[in-house]
Amino acid sequence: MEFMKKLIIICISWGVELAAFHRWFSCWLFSSTFYFTPQVLAANLLNATNAEKGMPILVIRALHNKIVTLAWGVLQTILQYWDIRFLEEFVGIVGAIGVMGGIWYVVTRYRKNVFLWVFVGVGILLQIIEIYIVPNFPYGQRIIPLVLFFQLLSLFGVWQFLKKNTCMRYGIVICLLVLSLIALVIFPLSYQAFCLKS
Description:
This protein is mostly helical. It has one domain (about 1-195).
């Protein structure tokens, strides 16, 4: 009986996540903060070095070299995909909380489970591919693996959260599902802050 309750909640959660995701097909690209190009790297270096006038050139070169700026820019861009505001629009409120719960469970409880770490690594690889292969593949083909990663991670997080069979946990997930549906109805165009319309 408990298994069926969890399965029903997971199926409803996935339905809400799919409803949140279907809006994204009207976009033709994520917004520019989700991509890191050589032009962005050059602009960042130029802005950083011009702001340091009057400092010794060796200090400027040490602090603002291409490797550090590239690593920092890629890290910032990857973290855009993990922003709670983006996830809330991408997979819904319940999905965003589920993703955070899934990461929490992977990091704290499943340290030795190689499959889960490979799954998270593949998800990060998908984000890196999205960062660098901007116009080469159609948007729909790039976005589906990315959303499947976040949805599976979210459903894993919700499932782990519901492992302790308490009414309070079920109530929290049901409240998140209701909030997700209300947000989809009241704010149907809020996802456009993260994408470019065609």
